[in-house]
Amino acid sequence: MSKVLIIGAGGVGNVVVQKCAQLPGVFSEIVLASRTVKKCQDIAASLKRPITVEQVDADDAKQVAALVGKHKPQLVVNVALPYQDLPIMDGCLEAGVDYLDTANYEPKDVAKFEYSYQWNYHDRYKDKGIMALLGSGFDPGVTNVYCAYAMKHYYDEINYVDIVDCNAGDHGHPFATNFNPEINIREITQKGRYWENGQWVEIDPMSIHRDINYPEVGPKASYLLYHEELESLAKYIKGLKRIRFWMTFGEQYLTHLRVLQNVGMTRIDPVDYEGHKIVPLQFLKAVLPDPGSLGVNYKGKTSIGVIFDGVKDGQRKQMMIYNVCDHAECYKEVRAQAVSYTTGVPAMIGAKMILEGKWKGKGVFNMEQFDPDPFMADLNLYGLPWKIIEGKTIDN
Ligand code: NDP
């Protein structure tokens, strides 16, 4: 029986709250706080059990610490934006409470994705006797756990890893992003990067692509991107020679993105507009559909997994672990599309691992550092069942 404080009432926050509310035996009390309290109230009104709602500006560590001090939760789940990671980690440190998030910290003024900012908290968290679990979404998150599971049960060493992320759904809008538009567009428009033979190889944005055959979806054009889990997995996977991340994008999405970039709407530096400073990408976010609202008419599936190539008992072994999720089914269950769902469910399971004491530690941790078995078992129980295809490679 534990109290959890969830910060962020967007698309993902809604799913985390709904899923936690389904498990009163684990999450006996839920506090939901966000910048706009109305969004918390709307989520609360959709639930069958009461929760507490609060307003907080999580850019301010003092406000976070005061909120934690007021409610005394066992754990803070951060599903606000990556910009808030450090102030929320600071607030948890001050209050002496465990921390979990789904995306690594990014400074607002430069699209720089790396774990160093958060790994730097390791000694302070350790000294305080608390833990931080980083990246408990799908990718990062479930993909890291798939890697730990493959390492534990199927391989002596894993040499090649391809994380493949396909959204074959259709939301009916000419252009929309499936999670926070600002974060999404910053991620896609940066340079691509993968890790090979101990080094990072940098490429121009979206300059490498190929068709990948996704389970239950079929072949889709996929683009090599940098994604944050590559950084921690390159550190922890034994025998690794190369790790890459691929994501699908439709022609229509890419054409819109190209135009937006060409006209300067994806810039993240402030520009003068009628005597005010505005950041074009933040303005763009204000006019695009809210990702939390996309679920209503969303059709189709996501198919996300990890393709492994390595060695077991002296024999070469190739396989894939993956999950397929249906947008309309997610909407029926929690009024969310599958991208919010596939992020929110693992955040709930990560929180459950900590509160049940199945994942324990002092310091700052990535998902692959813990025993994957209880997490994998819960994925099957709570909405993200996984399957294995033996012999699957990125080419077949
Ligand atoms: P949304 O934009 O829908 O929601 C973000 C929420 O955070 C909003 O309710 C927003 O409040 C709130 N917020 C923003 N700033 C603050 C602040 N200063 N103080 C308090 N609350 C604040 O985003 P998503 O739900 O789509 O994404 C949530 C997180 O999940 C992001 O970090 C994203 O990167 C991550 N993610 C991770 C994935 C994974 O697989 N690991 C996949 C997809 C997303 P307001 O309503 O006032 O704007």
Mean of all residue-level pLDDT scores: 96
The shape is globular
User: Beta-sheet strand percentage?
Assistant: 25-35%
- Which CATH-level-2 architecture of the largest domain? 2-Layer Sandwich
Radius of gyration: 20 Å
The amount of helix comes to: 25-40%
β-strand number: 18
Uncertain residue ranges: none
Description of the molecule:
The strands form 3 sheets. Strands 7, 8, 9, 10, 11, 12, 15, 16 and 18 form a 9-stranded mixed β-sheet that branches. A 7-stranded parallel β-sheet has the order 3-2-1-4-5-6-17, with helices on both faces. The model has no long low-confidence stretch (mean pLDDT 96). It is 35% helix and 28% strand. It folds into 2 domains: 2-134, 3-Layer(aba) Sandwich (Rossmann fold), CATH 3.40.50.720; 142-336 and 385-390, Dihydrodipicolinate Reductase, domain 2. By secondary structure, the protein is α/β, with parallel strands linked by helices. Bound molecules: NADPH dihydro-nicotinamide-adenine-dinucleotide phosphate. NADPH dihydro-nicotinamide-adenine-dinucleotide phosphate is lined by residues 7-13, 34-36, 39, 56-59, 79-82, 84, 102-103, 135, 137-141, 179-180, 183, 291-292, 339, 343. Residues 7-13, 34-36, 39, 56-59, 79-82, 84, 102-103, 135, 137-141, 179-180, 183, 291-292, 339, 343 line the site of NADPH dihydro-nicotinamide-adenine-dinucleotide phosphate (NDP).
